[in-house]
Design a protein that fits this description.
single chain, 294 residues, alpha/beta, Rossmann fold, seven-stranded parallel sheet, three-stranded mixed sheet, 11 helices, 18% strand, globular
């Protein structure tokens, strides 16, 4: 039995059809079952509630062999530690209690770099990984740079003003990956019951690009001039405060961006094993362009 958390997230939405195609037993934990597609409700067991709730995660992990763990965004958390480590603690207890053999989680790049201890959400993610690894389960931490798909929330300003905003220097080339590739890597591990031990698995995409280079590619694909507009750290933090984030979580976003600007995502060398296939141009054609038109 494979247990999937956050099934209505962007990653979960693309992961579930891959598991469905493999015809394996799946159980999902979801706050609101009505948000699942009818097909998923027909073919998966559904446990309704938060996967941060001890009773819910304990019930969901009974008889489970594999767990896909995705910590949900919580802009209202009192601290980054609360959002990642404390949210995950009941799952760690349930993994041990039920002898779940294999755990795959979504985390961030940065472990081993000089910037990992002051990287906001990344620091919280790495502490979450340590908690899951301490359960003794076989563990794969899928370690991500920025998601290409995170640009989607700026589509309205791209459309109306021809720009997107970033606190990271526009000239700095960094890795980025697509959600579809993340889901494919996760499915590969969840459908395999032979891997053992504990390791990080970087998911780096096929190339490093700067935001200025991304803007040029977007302009070509969309037929609409797009530029990357710099934003200072204070303004970046204020943007999240205005969206309802607590000060601690807004600081977490700002600290993460500052660490990325210093090279947090550049500590892993791309190899055939860490590269994933979807290029930024391909992502723009298949994901960004349809969203831009709607």
């Amino acid at each position: 039995m494979i247990v999937i958390t956050a099934p209505t997230s962007r990653i979960g939405h693309q992961l579930l059809p891959l598991l469905r195609a493999a015809n394996v037993p799946v159980r999902v934990i979801v706050r609101n079952a009505e948000k699942l597609s009818p097909e998923i409700r027909r073919h998966a067991e559904v446990v309704e509630g938060s996967h941060g709730d001890a009773a819910i995660i304990d019930r969901a992990l009974k008889g489970a062999t594999h767990l896909f763990w995705l910590c949900p965004a919580n802009p209202k958390a009192a601290s980054v530690d609360e959002a990642y480590v404390e949210f995950t603690r009941p799952a760690a207890d349930a993994i041990k209690a039920h002898g779940v053999e294999r755990v795959v989680d979504i985390t961030a790049l940065g472990r081993g770099t000089p910037y990992a201890d002051e990287a906001g959400y990344v620091t919280g993610s790495l502490a979450m990984d340590d908690l899951l690894a301490a359960t003794g389960a076989h563990f794969r931490a899928l370690s991500m740079p920025s998601f290409m798909d995170n640009l989607l929330w700026q589509v309205p300003v791209m459309r109306n003003k021809g720009m997107f905003f970033s606190p990271i220097p526009g000239h700095l080339a960094l890795p980025a990956c697509s959600v579809s590739d993340i889901a494919a890597v996760a499915a590969r591990f969840l459908l395999d019951d032979t891997w053992e031990g504990q390791a990080e698995v970087p998911v780096l995409g096929p190339e490093d690009l700067s935001f200025n280079q991304m803007a040029a590619i977007m302009s070509e694909v969309l037929g609409h001039k797009i530029t990357c507009a710099p934003v200072d750290s204070d303004s970046y933090k204020t943007m999240f405060i205005n969206q309802g984030f607590t000060e601690a979580m807004a600081d977490g976003m700002t600290d993460m961006a500052r660490a990325k600007s210093r090279g947090l995502d550049l500590g892993v060398t791309r190899t055939p094993k860490t590269a994933t296939p979807t290029s930024f141009r391909q992502w723009c054609e298949t994901v960004l362009k349809p969203a831009f038109k709607n």
